[in-house]
Amino acid sequence: MSQNTRRAIRSAAILLFAIVTATAIAACGSSTSPSTVSAIAVTGTVPTVGTTSQLTATATLASNSTEDVTSTATWTSSNAGIATVSASGLVTAVASGSVVIQASYSSVSGSEVLNIP
Questions:
Q1: Are residues 56 and 94 in the same domain?
Q2: Is the pLDDT score of 112 beyond 70?
Q3: What residues form DSSP beta bridges with 74?
Q4: Domain residues for 109?
């Protein structure tokens, strides 16, 4: 076998390995894609004024399985004067009152009304 043939075979093998590896990595990624999320549930405990509470966002997929998307969801508060929420879903109660905390993921939103005592 000539030197050029060996190089061509080696190059083809490296390319095939790269394609197989990339396919495997893509297949092993998160099962949650924008088209599979059917609902977002926001859960957690209500903090009292001056304390914090971690909320959780759970995506329900079209297959009826669930996935925790707390760290990748976008969090918002309807009234930062009553409670703020961090990018990770940590709620800080600022004053007494009612506030809606919303989590959005893959164009789907869910919310929880918190009545801060």
A1: yes
A2: yes
A3: 104
A4: 37-116
Q: In this structure, what are the phi and psi dihedrals at residue 14, rounded to the nearest 5 degrees? A: -65, -45
What are 32-42's pLDDT values in tens digits? 555 599 999 99
Burial 84-98, CB ≥16 within 10 A → b, else e = bbeeebbbbbbeeee
88 against 24, higher pLDDT: 88
CB 73 within 8 A of CB 63: no
| Structural contact between residues 12 and 58, judged by C-beta atoms closer than 8 angstroms | no
Beta bridge partners of 44: none
In total, how many domains does the chain have? 2
The pLDDT score that the predictor gives to residue 3 is 77
Q: What is the pLDDT of residue 61?
A: 94
CA separation for the pair 53, 75 (Å, rounded): 14
Pairing of β 97-105 and β 108-116: antiparallel
CA distances from 54 to 91, 94, 109 (A): 6, 15, 18
User: How far is the C-alpha of 49 from the C-alpha of 94, rounded, in Å?
Assistant: 5
Regarding whether 72 and 15 lie in a shared domain, the answer is: no
